[in-house]
Specification:
Layout (H helix, E strand, L loop, with lengths): L9 H7 L8 H9 L2 H8 L3 H18 L11
Length: 75
């Protein structure tokens, strides 16, 4: 999850899907220690939609940087 937060606009996307406050101490623990699938399950978030949007942003970032290797995030 910590790697996902490196994406531009990742916090905004996660907030859109109602992830709990990204600045609170428990959220910090979750972001550093849990996988995105675990967090989505805990909070009832539609992981398929969230991953699709995050991957779209990762792809756009890769294109912006003219990178040939764009990470695809999975559950």
């Amino acid at each position: 999850m910590a790697e996902i937060l490196k994406l531009p606009q990742a916090e905004k996307t996660l907030a859109k899907y109602n992830l709990p406050c990204l600045g609170c101490p428990m959220a910090k623990f979750e972001m550093e220690n849990l996988k995105i699938g675990e967090i989505c399950q805990m909070y009832g978030i539609d992981i398929e939609k969230l991953l699709k949007e995050l991957n779209t942003r990762a792809s756009a970032k890769g294109e912006d940087e003219r990178s040939s290797s764009t990470r695809v995030y999975k559950k």
